[in-house]
Automatic annotation (TrEMBL):
Residues 83-449 form the Aminotransferase class I/classII large domain. Gene3D superfamilies: Aspartate Aminotransferase, domain 1, Type I PLP-dependent aspartate aminotransferase-like (Major domain). GO terms for biological process: lysine biosynthetic process via diaminopimelate. It comes from the Bacteria. Pathway: Amino-acid biosynthesis; L-lysine biosynthesis via DAP pathway; LL-2,6-diaminopimelate from (S)-tetrahydrodipicolinate (aminotransferase route): step 1/1. It is an enzyme of class 2 (transferase). This is LL-diaminopimelate aminotransferase. Its EC number is 2.6.1.83. Its cofactor is pyridoxal 5'-phosphate. It catalyses: (2S,6S)-2,6-diaminopimelate + 2-oxoglutarate = (S)-2,3,4,5-tetrahydrodipicolinate + L-glutamate + H2O + H(+). It holds the Pfam family Aminotran_1_2. InterPro entries: Aminotransferase_I/II_large, DapL/ALD1, PyrdxlP-dep_Trfase, PyrdxlP-dep_Trfase_major, PyrdxlP-dep_Trfase_small. GO terms for molecular function: L,L-diaminopimelate aminotransferase activity; pyridoxal phosphate binding. It comes from Candidatus Kentrum sp. FM.
Length: 454
């Protein structure tokens, strides 16, 4: 794993000048620069702001934005039935009461000069970082310290931004199908070639298929940066402890780094499954973990998440010198992020209170019951399903082109799903259905789908 290193030009115009220094004279830039600046501000035709050409490699729009446009276009036709959205993974139930009460108390503090708070620490307030480390990790025997927790406004941001720490030339392994952010952020950074037949040249794709139970196999050659997500988005697959240990062992052998997205950890009900990558030996040396309160406690509109970066994680310079990934992320985080608001962090802290835990557990159980119902109905209709047991997502073989199946359910049933092709080449022919909705809407959606597919 190599670091990203670049020389930057330095503007010294802000430095104080000596008293006897004459005022700076207006000067012209070198002819070699391709333009001339003088009193008339003349510029050549070749001087212009340039774009990052790698953005041209991106597909026309982000998957979920594309779906939203298609749904909006259909809504304008005046459909007979209201549309039920089981596509994007957005929760529908209100924040837990414990979180709302903590929110109110924090807002009241902000209304009093004596307790008002301005800028907070970029990494998060100690009260939340300490609670996270203690309750989510130390209570499980995972030795994560509070200063290894970085509070942020979303796992999407962190999982997209973390790649900035590493050299453009590192090799990147990404599962297929996959959450699009992992791919697109590396495309923007210039780590890929062009788009060809559903994939970007230059990435190492890890096929997740029915044959391997949607758990990708280890790369045959060494790679530097590995993205994993379990319980998986979009397939709903959950990884075993032994399989996760194999990934950690691979990373240690190859001095690689795993970026582990555990945003759906709260949906795991099988006690034998790992709840964090730090449940397996050696992960502190080679793994960063992303967590979120969005699906756990309904914070999709409130925005709060965190990333764990153990101090033992290392990346390497061109000469092989080990550098702390923790220190690099801390530097990046404090430069580009200015903390989550105090009331939101107090609300997140309340998730760990006895009342908060009970209320969160009830919401998770509610969505899992939705998933169970969807799974049972789709199987009864003769469709193969993965997920929906330790995950809010169901990965369904649509027996046809995934965009065609998406259009069929939208226009004939008024139900929005997510076409699997949007998650990668291995997603072709599949759709993802989300359990995030009311049970009443889920039962209505399945009744409509049943009529269309019968």
């Amino acid at each position: 794993m190599r670091l990203s290193c670049a020389m930057n030009s330095v503007d010294i115009s802000f430095l104080p000048q000596a008293e006897d220094t004459a005022p700076p004279k207006e000067v012209s830039t070198s002819q070699e620069c391709g333009y001339i600046t003088n009193n008339h501000h003349r510029y050549s035709d070749t001087h212009m702001i340039k774009i990052n050409e790698h953005f041209h490699k991106l597909q026309s729009s982000y998957l979920f934005s594309d779906i939203a446009k298609r749904v909006a276009a259909y809504e304008r036709t005046g459909p007979e039935h209201g549309i039920i959205k089981l596509g994007i993974g957005d929760v529908t139930r209100a924040l837990p009461k414990a979180c709302i009460e903590a929110f109110h108390r924090a807002v009241d503090e902000m209304a009093d000069d004596a307790t008002f708070r301005g800028y907070g620490p970029e990494q998060g307030y100690d009260f939340l970082r300490e609670t996270i480390a203690r309750e989510d990790f130390q209570a499980r025997g995972a030795p994560i310290e509070a200063d290894e927790v970085f509070v942020s406004d979303g796992a999407k941001c962190d999982s997209g931004n973390f790649q900035e720490l590493f050299a453009t030339g590192v090799s990147v392994a990404i599962p297929d199908p996959v959450y699009p952010v992992y791919v697109d952020s590396n495309v923007m950074a210039g780590r890929t070639g062009p788009w060809r037949d559903g994939r970007y040249a230059g990435l190492v794709y890890l096929d997740a298929t029915r044959e391997n139970h949607f758990i990708p196999e280890l790369p045959k050659a060494p790679v530097d940066l590995i993205y994993l997500c379990f319980p998986n988005n979009p397939t709903g697959a959950a990884i075993t402890r032994a399989a996760l240990q194999a990934w950690v062992d691979y990373a240690r052998q190859n001095k690689a780094l795993i970026l582990y997205d555990a945003a759906y950890e709260a949906f795991i009900r099988d006690e034998d499954l790992p709840r964090t990558i730090y449940d397996v030996q050696g992960a502190r040396e080679v793994a960063v973990e992303f967590r979120s309160f969005s699906k756990t406690a309904g914070f999709t509109g409130t925005r709060c998440a965190y990333t764990v970066v153990p101090k033992g994680c290392m990346a390497y310079t061109e000469t092989g010198e080990p550098i702390s990934v923790h220190s690099l992320w801390n530097r990046r985080h404090t430069t580009k992020f200015n903390s989550v608001s105090y009331p939101v962090q107090r609300a997140a802290e309340a998730v760990y209170s006895p009342e908060g835990r009970r209320q969160v557990h009830e919401r998770i159980a509610y969505y899992l019951n939705n998933a169970k119902y969807i799974r049972e109905k789709m199987i009864a209709m003769g469709y193969e399903c993965a997920g929906g047991e330790n995950s809010p997502y169901l990965w369904i073989d649509g027996k046809t082109d995934s965009w065609e199946f998406f259009s069929l359910l939208l226009t004939r049933a008024g139900v929005v799903c997510t076409p699997g092709a949007g998650f990668g080449r291995c997603g072709r022919g599949y759709i993802r259905i989300s359990a995030f909705n009311s049970f009443e809407n889920v039962t209505e959606a399945m009744a409509r789908i049943g009529k269309v597919l019968s």
